C-alpha cells in the first residue's frame, strides 16, 4: 500500500493505535480459491493479519493504576520481568504474561488490595497456527468486584511444548474451564488436580477446537443438488 | 434365583470384597446379598444421564453411606454439539443462529452476549438505534421470566410438587407465544443480530405484551401462595445446597446463587449494557445462601423483570416506525422480511428493487448475504446477566468474514462445579434440590 493511501483508511481499519503491531498470519486472495481458477485478479492479494499492538503509557483511566500495582506487586513477589506486554483495544486491557509467571501474577492479582480480582470468568483457548512459537494461547478474564474492573490475561505456549501452569490453586473455578481447554486445544495445565477430558469422550482422538482439526460433515442432497459440508464450501477469506 | 445369575444385578468377588453391579431396578438382589451377612461398606450410584430429576442429560456419580452422600461428581458432555467450532465456519451474522441454541431456555442472552461482542469489535456500540436497544431489553426480560418459570417449575417437579410444574409451564407458554409473535419462533430465535434486531415489532405486539403483564400480575402471586410458606416446600429447600459468599467467589458462581448470599451483584447494575442504567428496577437478594433463598430470588426477579418489560413497552409505544438496525449499509441486513401468504419470509419491495431497479443494490445484497461483513482483528469479552449468572462471550476476529474463535463462558457450566460442595455430607434426596437451585441447562453446559 502506498503512502498516500493512508488518508483513505477509516480509523476502525487501522489495526493498532499505538506501539508495535502484532502479526499472526497472512491472508491470501479473497474468494477462497487456491491454485488457479481465480481470474478476478484478487487471487494474488496478500495481506498480513495484524492484531492490535502494544499500548504505550499513559494508558488512560484506571488502566495505569492496575498496571502500576501489578508491576510493583509482581516485583515484590520476585518476578524477573515485572512489566508484561499490554494491549488496549476497544477499551479492554490485556496483559500478556510469560507462562512461567502466570501463577505468581494470578496470586498477586487476586490478593493485592489495589488489584483484588476476586472473580475469574474462566479460561478460553485460542489456536493461532501461524503465530510461530506461540501457537496456543490461553486467555483468562478476571473481574474485580471491589473496583468493578475487568482485565484479560493472555498466556501462550508453542505447539511443541503445550504446557501452561494451572491456576486452579488460586481460582478453583478454573477446574472445569482448564479441563475444557485441555479437551479442546490440548493445552496441558501443569498442576491441575485431575486434568481429564470433560466434554468429549475419554477415548476421543485429537483436540477438536484446534485449527488443524477438521470440522467434519457429509454432503447433503436436496432436490437433486448436493451441498458440500460447511468446511468444503467456497468461502471468503 | 441366586444373585450371581441375575442378568441385571450381577455380583463379583474382588480383593476388596464382593461388588454388586445393579443396572436395572432389581434392588432385591442387593438386599439378598446383604442378608447373607455381608457388610456393605460403600455404594456408588450412577444417576443419569437419562434421569428425570437431574435437570437434563447430566450424569451424577454419587458415593453413598446409607442415605448420606459422601462424594458427588458430575459427568457432562452428553449434549456437546460443537457450537463454538461450527461458528468458525459461518459468517458473523450466521453465528447468532448457532449460539442461540446453547442455553435453550435463555436464547436471547446467548445472542446478546455474542452480538455485543461483535458490535464492540466493529466499534458500533454507540450506533445501535434506540428502538433496537429497547426491543433487546424487552425480549431479554421476558426471557428471564420464562427461564425462571422453568427453573421453578422443574425444581418443583423434581421434589414432587407437580402443581408448581404445571402452572410454571402454563405461564411460560404465554411468554413463548409473545416470542413467536415478535420473532416468529418460540425458541432458537436468532433475532438479535449484529447491528440491531432482525425485525420491527409486529402490529398489535404491544397490546399483547400489556395484557400479558396484566395477567402475570395476577398469576405470579399464585407461586408465592403455593410455595413461600408451604411447610413441605420449605422443609425440602431450607438449608439445602448451602454455599456462602467466599465459596461462591472461589467457584466463580454468579446469578441467583451469588445473590442468595446477600451480595447484590448484578451486571445490569454494575456494568450496564443496552441502556439498563435508564430502567428502574432493584437487584433482588436473600441472605440464607440456600436453595430456598434462590427460589425466592427467582420469584422476586420475575416481578422486577415485569417492571422492566412495562417500562420497555411504554418506550416502544413512543418509538413507532423508528429504525431497528444500524444505519451502516455495510453491516445492516439489506431487506426487511415479512411473512407472505405462503408462510415464507419475503420482501417483495426489496426483490423489486434489486431485481428490477438497481444493479448496484443487487451486488450489495449478494455481497452482504453471501460474504458478510469483515470485523477488525482483535478480541473482546462481553458479559451479560443471564437468568443463571454471568454469560460472557469471548469473541476473537482475525479481520475476516467469520469468527476466528467464539468462546462462551456459560454460567451453568461454571455453577455446576458447585455440585460437590453443595451435595457432599447431605442426604441423597437433597442432591436433587441443590442441583435444581443452581438451575443448570445442559445445552449451555456442554455447548
TrEMBL record, chain A:
It holds the Pfam family Complex1_30kDa. It catalyses: a quinone + NADH + 5 H(+)(in) = a quinol + NAD(+) + 4 H(+)(out). It is found in: Cell membrane. Signal peptide: none annotated. One of its GO terms (molecular function) is NADH dehydrogenase (ubiquinone) activity. InterPro entries: NADH_DH_suC, NADH_quin_OxRdtase_su_C/D-like, NADH_UbQ_OxRdtase_30kDa_su. Keywords: Cell membrane, Membrane, NAD, Quinone, Translocase, Transport. GO terms for cellular component: plasma membrane. Residues 96-217 form the NADH:ubiquinone oxidoreductase 30kDa subunit domain. It is a peripheral membrane protein. Residues 1-20 are annotated as: Disordered. Its EC number is 7.1.1.-. NDH-1 shuttles electrons from NADH, via FMN and iron-sulfur (Fe-S) centers, to quinones in the respiratory chain. The immediate electron acceptor for the enzyme in this species is believed to be a menaquinone. Couples the redox reaction to proton translocation (for every two electrons transferred, four hydrogen ions are translocated across the cytoplasmic membrane), and thus conserves the redox energy in a proton gradient. NDH-1 is composed of 14 different subunits. Subunits NuoB, C, D, E, F, and G constitute the peripheral sector of the complex. Belongs to the complex I 30 kDa subunit family. PANTHER family: NADH DEHYDROGENASE [UBIQUINONE] IRON-SULFUR PROTEIN 3, MITOCHONDRIAL, NADH DEHYDROGENASE UBIQUINONE IRON-SULFUR PROTEIN 3. This is NADH-quinone oxidoreductase subunit C. The lineage of its organism: Bacteria, Bacillati, Actinomycetota, Actinomycetes, Propionibacteriales.
Automatic annotation (TrEMBL), chain B:
It catalyses: a quinone + NADH + 5 H(+)(in) = a quinol + NAD(+) + 4 H(+)(out). PANTHER family: NADH DEHYDROGENASE [UBIQUINONE] IRON-SULFUR PROTEIN 2, MITOCHONDRIAL, NADH-UBIQUINONE OXIDOREDUCTASE 49 KDA SUBUNIT. NDH-1 shuttles electrons from NADH, via FMN and iron-sulfur (Fe-S) centers, to quinones in the respiratory chain. The immediate electron acceptor for the enzyme in this species is believed to be a menaquinone. Couples the redox reaction to proton translocation (for every two electrons transferred, four hydrogen ions are translocated across the cytoplasmic membrane), and thus conserves the redox energy in a proton gradient. SUPFAM superfamilies: HydB/Nqo4-like. Belongs to the complex I 49 kDa subunit family. It is a peripheral membrane protein. Gene3D superfamilies: Cytochrome-c3 Hydrogenase, chain B (1.10.645.10). NDH-1 is composed of 14 different subunits. Subunits NuoB, C, D, E, F, and G constitute the peripheral sector of the complex. Keywords: Cell membrane, Membrane, NAD, Quinone, Translocase, Transport. GO terms for cellular component: plasma membrane. It is found in: Cell membrane. It comes from Nocardioides soli. This is NADH-quinone oxidoreductase subunit D. InterPro entries: NADH_Q_OxRdtase_suD (IPR001135), NADH_UbQ_OxRdtase_49kDa_CS (IPR014029), NDH1_su_D/H (IPR022885), NiFe-Hase_large (IPR029014). Its EC number is 7.1.1.-. Residues 159-447 form the NADH-quinone oxidoreductase subunit D domain. GO terms for molecular function: NAD binding; NADH dehydrogenase (quinone) (non-electrogenic) activity; quinone binding.
Amino acid at each position: 500500500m502506498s503512502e498516500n493511501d493512508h488518508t483513505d483508511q477509516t480509523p476502525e481499519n487501522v489495526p493498532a493505535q499505538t506501539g508495535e503491531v502484532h502479526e499472526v498470519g497472512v491472508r491470501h486472495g479473497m474468494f477462497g480459491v487456491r491454485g488457479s481458477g481465480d481470474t478476478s485478479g484478487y487471487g494474488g492479494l496478500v495481506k498480513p493479519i495484524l492484531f492490535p499492538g502494544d499500548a504505550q503509557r499513559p494508558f488512560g483511566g484506571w488502566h495505569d493504576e492496575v498496571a502500576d500495582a501489578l508491576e510493583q506487586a509482581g516485583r515484590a513477589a520476585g518476578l524477573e520481568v515485572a512489566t508484561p506486554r499490554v494491549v488496549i483495544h476497544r477499551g479492554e486491557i490485556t496483559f500478556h504474561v510469560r507462562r512461567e509467571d502466570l501463577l505468581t501474577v494470578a496470586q498477586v492479582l487476586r490478593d493485592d488490595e489495589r488489584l483484588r480480582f476476586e472473580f475469574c470468568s474462566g479460561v478460553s483457548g485460542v489456536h493461532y497456527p501461524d503465530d510461530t512459537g506461540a501457537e496456543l494461547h490461553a486467555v483468562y478474564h478476571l473481574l474485580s468486584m471491589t473496583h468493578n474492573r475487568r482485565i484479560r490475561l493472555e498466556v501462550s505456549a508453542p505447539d511443541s511444548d503445550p504446557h501452561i501452569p494451572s491456576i486452579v490453586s488460586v481460582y478453583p473455578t478454573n477446574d472445569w474451564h482448564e479441563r475444557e481447554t485441555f479437551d479442546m486445544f490440548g493445552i496441558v495445565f501443569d498442576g491441575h488436580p485431575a486434568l481429564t477430558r470433560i466434554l468429549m469422550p475419554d477415548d476421543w482422538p485429537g483436540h477438536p477446537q484446534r485449527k488443524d482439526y477438521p470440522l467434519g460433515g457429509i454432503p447433503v442432497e436436496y432436490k437433486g443438488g448436493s451441498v458440500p459440508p460447511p468446511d468444503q464450501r467456497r468461502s471468503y477469506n | 434365583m441366586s444373585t450371581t445369575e441375575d442378568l441385571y444385578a450381577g455380583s463379583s468377588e474382588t480383593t476388596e470384597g464382593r461388588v454388586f453391579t445393579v443396572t436395572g431396578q432389581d434392588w432385591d438382589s442387593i438386599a439378598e446379598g446383604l442378608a447373607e451377612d455381608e457388610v456393605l461398606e460403600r455404594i456408588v450410584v450412577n444417576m443419569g444421564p437419562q434421569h428425570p430429576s437431574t435437570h437434563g442429560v447430566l450424569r451424577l456419580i454419587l458415593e453413598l453411606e446409607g442415605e448420606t452422600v459422601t462424594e458427588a461428581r458430575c459427568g457432562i458432555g452428553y449434549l456437546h454439539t460443537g457450537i463454538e467450532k461450527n461458528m468458525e465456519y459461518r459468517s458473523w451474522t450466521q453465528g447468532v443462529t448457532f449460539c442461540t441454541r446453547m442455553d435453550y431456555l435463555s436464547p436471547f442472552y446467548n445472542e446478546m452476549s455474542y452480538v455485543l461482542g461483535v458490535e464492540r469489535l466493529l466499534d458500533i456500540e454507540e450506533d445501535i438505534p434506540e428502538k433496537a436497544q429497547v426491543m433487546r431489553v424487552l425480549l431479554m426480560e421476558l426471557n428471564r421470566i420464562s427461564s425462571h418459570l422453568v427453573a421453578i417449575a422443574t425444581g418443583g417437579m423434581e421434589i414432587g410438587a407437580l402443581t408448581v410444574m404445571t402452572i410454571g409451564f402454563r405461564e411460560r407458554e404465554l411468554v413463548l407465544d409473545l416470542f413467536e409473535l415478535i420473532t416468529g419462533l418460540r425458541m432458537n430465535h436468532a433475532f438479535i443480530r449484529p447491528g440491531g434486531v432482525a425485525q420491527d415489532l409486529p402490529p398489535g405486539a404491544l397490546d399483547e405484551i400489556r395484557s400479558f403483564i396484566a395477567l402475570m400480575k395476577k398469576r405470579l402471586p399464585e407461586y408465592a401462595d403455593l410455595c413461600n410458606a408451604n411447610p413441605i416446600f420449605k422443609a425440602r429447600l431450607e438449608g439445602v445446597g448451602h454455599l456462602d459468599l467466599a465459596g461462591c467467589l472461589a467457584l466463580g458462581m454468579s446469578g441467583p446463587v451469588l445473590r442468595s448470599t446477600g451480595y447484590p451483584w448484578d451486571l445490569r447494575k454494575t456494568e450496564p449494557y443496552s441502556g439498563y442504567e435508564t430502567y428502574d428496577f432493584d437487584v433482588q437478594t436473600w441472605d440464607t445462601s440456600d436453595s430456598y433463598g434462590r427460589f425466592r430470588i427467582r420469584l422476586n426477579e420475575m416481578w422486577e423483570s415485569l417492571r422492566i418489560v412495562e417500562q420497555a413497552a411504554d418506550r416502544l409505544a413512543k418509538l413507532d416506525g423508528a429504525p431497528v438496525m444500524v444505519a451502516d449499509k455495510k453491516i445492516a441486513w439489506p431487506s426487511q422480511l415479512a411473512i407472505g401468504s405462503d408462510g415464507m419470509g419475503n420482501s417483495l419491495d426489496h426483490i423489486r428493487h434489486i431485481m428490477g431497479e438497481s444493479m448496484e443494490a443487487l451486488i450489495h445484497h449478494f455481497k452482504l448475504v453471501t460474504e458478510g461483513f469483515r470485523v477488525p482483528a482483535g478480541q473482546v469479552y462481553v458479559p451479560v446477566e443471564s437468568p443463571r449468572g454471568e454469560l460472557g462471550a469471548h469473541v476473537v476476529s482475525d479481520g475476516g468474514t467469520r469468527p476466528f474463535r467464539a468462546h462462551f463462558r456459560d454460567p451453568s457450566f461454571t455453577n455446576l462445579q458447585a455440585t460437590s460442595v453443595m451435595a457432599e455430607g447431605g442426604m441423597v434426596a437433597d442432591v436433587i434440590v441443590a442441583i435444581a437451585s443452581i438451575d443448570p441447562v445442559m445445552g449451555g453446559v456442554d455447548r
